[in-house]
Amino acid sequence: IRRQRQMCIRDRLIILEETMMPISNYFAPLRNVLLTDAAACVFMSVPMIFATRWLEKILNIPSALLFFAGICLLPVAIIMVFVATRKSVSRNGVALVVAGNIAWVVASLSLIVTDWIAPNFIGVAFIGCQAAAVTVFALLEYTGLCRLALAAKIN
Question: Can you tell me the distance from the alpha carbon of 27 to that of 13, in angstroms, rounded to the nearest whole number?
């Protein structure tokens, strides 16, 4: 009976150690989301910068808007990489990224619901899909931000 009791206590300690993850381990998923978001920014910016005329014909979105939106994505990607690759992920940095993503979604949706531009069906789908993807990134980054705050309180 005593041996069973010792094993039970040891098992509980192992479980406790596994759940008491050091705060640095909480950064890994958030880093991955930030780096994936940065890669998506670069991936989207390339055709928006270098294929603006072609995209304008397909989407019926002005080439100047596509070009400057693509240009804006590059420094955003750099900021995301910078925040993700620090030794300690900055909560303020992540909050800035989340706020930027929310602003991007609001601006994208405003293009759909207002008459500032007149995209065709494919253009509306393009704007809507990228806004949905950015919303997912913002939610994942916000979740990571909340986990960081919780981990800081626990540790």
Answer: 24
Which three-class secondary structure state does DSSP give residue 95?
Answer: helix
Q: Of the candidates 47, 152, 21, 49, which has an alpha carbon nearest to the alpha carbon of residue 94? A: 152
Q: What is the pLDDT of residues 49-77, one digit of tens each?
A: 999 999 999 999 999 999 999 999 999 99
Rounded Cα–Cα distance for residues 10 and 5 (Å) = 9
Q: What is the pLDDT of residues 97-118, one digit of tens each?
A: 999 999 999 999 999 999 999 9
First vs last C-alpha separation in the chain: 35
Those residues with Cβ within 8 angstroms of residue 128's Cβ, 6 or more apart along the chain or in another chain = 108, 112
Q: Which position has the token pair 């030794």?
A: 87
Calculate helix-pair angle for 63-85, 23-50, nearest 10 degrees.
160
Return the structure tokens found at 12.
């509980």
